[in-house]
């Protein structure tokens, strides 16, 4: 039987994962079947168990199940433990191995695809939700000169700060960002999903060489519009992160690293 993989989420109609993994499999000469499952909001564990019982080898997990996926894992990675969220499973006999590739995918897109290393640079990260939880360890490992995290809900930000327990991670309120400047400004809030702009002062973009929006396929979001107006050279959305996290999972499952450039190009919606 062809090896079975799936992405599970709810809703799942919008998912690009099956096309990404089909393109990876074709380019790597791998025989796999990859489907999309609309998970039950009341029986996520049952859906995973059924897929595994049918011979499933691995899964990607998307909203709203990443936290439940972590709870279900028997062997979570360190990244998944910090995030308390998993976006990929690998099934080995009875074991459910779990990892979180969102952060490494984001980092690879920024450093490798967009040519913007974090090493020695001033990085501003907006948000303190699941995506930021996944990004913090990989970001700190990339040695930024300064990593500042800002969130509306500062209690949530402080919880993260305590969990990470690394003096290089600094917290700020949105108000206190006035007059500060950064090399890279990364919007990991979900504000753009509702067409909103996080209350970030325009001054943070003054010297920035990259403004990165994690949401994808939405063109110039309010955040990217402000960055463009402020003269930021490189604007990007999260399509590269999406493809890079998928490549990490594919390699974890299949032992082969797929090329990502053509897939990113194919899925990119112009930032206009
Ligand atoms: P969460 O729901 O876990 O967190 C949402 C975060 O956004 C919180 O920090 C929240 O702040 C903040 N927020 C929401 N609205 C606003 C606003 N109007 N102004 C300021 N802050 C706001 O979401 P995720 O972390 O899972 O996702 C964040 C973004 O990343 C989404 O756009 C998502 O689509 C994208 N994403 C992209 C991926 C990719 O592969 N490209 C993968 C995963 C996520 P507060 O705590 O104060 O409420």
Question: How is the topology of this model organized?
Answer:
Blueprint: E1 3-9, H1 17-28, E2 32-38, H2 44-53, E3 56-61, H3 66-72, E4 75-76, H4 78-83, E5 88-92, E6 95-99, H5 102-113, E7 122-126, H6 130-141, E8 146-150, H7 154-164, E9 169-172, E10 184-187, E11 210-213, H8 222-229, E12 234-237, H9 239-254, H10 261-267
Parallel strand pairs: 1-2, 1-3, 4-6, 7-8, 7-10, 8-9, 10-11, 11-12
Antiparallel strand pairs: 3-5, 5-6
Helix pairs in contact: 1-9, 5-6, 5-9
Please describe the structure with a list of short key phrases separated by commas or semicolons:
single chain; about 270 residues; alpha/beta; Rossmann fold; 2 domains; six-stranded mixed sheet; six-stranded parallel sheet; 10 helices; 12 strands; about 35% helix; binds NADPH dihydro-nicotinamide-adenine-dinucleotide phosphate
What would you note in describing this structure?
This protein is α/β, with parallel strands linked by helices and 272 residues long. The protein folds into two domains: 126 residues, Rossmann fold, CATH 3.40.50; 135 residues, Rossmann fold (3-Layer(aba) Sandwich). Helix content is 37%, strand content 21%. The strands form two sheets. It has a six-stranded mixed β-sheet with strand order 2-1-3-5-6-4, sandwiched between helices. Helix 1 packs across helix 9, helix 5 crosses helix 6 and helix 5 crosses helix 9. The structure holds NADPH dihydro-nicotinamide-adenine-dinucleotide phosphate (NDP). NADPH dihydro-nicotinamide-adenine-dinucleotide phosphate binds next to helix 6 and helix 9.
């Amino acid at each position: 039987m062809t090896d079975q993989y799936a992405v599970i989420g709810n809703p799942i109609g919008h998912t690009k994962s099956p096309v990404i993994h089909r393109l990876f499999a074709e380019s790597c000469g791998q025989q796999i079947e990859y489907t999309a499952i609309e998970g039950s909001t009341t029986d996520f564990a049952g859906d995973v168990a059924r897929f595994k019982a049918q011979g499933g080898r691995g899964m990607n997990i998307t909203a709203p199940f990443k936290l439940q996926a972590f709870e279900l894992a028997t062997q979570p990675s360190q990244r998944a433990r910090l995030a308390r969220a998993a976006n990929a499973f690998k099934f080995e006999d009875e074991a459910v191995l779990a990892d979180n590739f969102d952060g490494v995918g984001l980092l690879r897109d920024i450093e490798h695809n967009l040519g913007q290393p974090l090493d020695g640079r001033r990085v501003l990260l907006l948000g303190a939700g699941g995506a930021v939880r996944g990004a913090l360890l990989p970001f700190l490992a990339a040695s930024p000169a300064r990593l500042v995290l800002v969130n509306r809900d500062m209690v949530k930000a402080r919880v993260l700060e305590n969990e990470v327990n690394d003096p290089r991670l600094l917290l700020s309120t949105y108000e206190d960002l006035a007059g500060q400047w950064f090399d890279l400004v990364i919007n990991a809030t979900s504000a753009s999903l509702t067409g909103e702009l996080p209350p970030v002062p325009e001054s943070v973009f003054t010297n920035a060489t990259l403004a990165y929006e994690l949401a994808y396929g939405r063109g110039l979001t309010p955040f990217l519009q402000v960055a463009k107006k402020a003269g930021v050279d490189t604007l990007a959305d999260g399509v590269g992160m999406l493809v890079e996290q998928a490549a990490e999972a594919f390699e974890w499952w299949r032992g082969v690293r797929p090329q990502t450039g053509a897939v990113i190009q194919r899925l990119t919606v112009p930032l206009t």
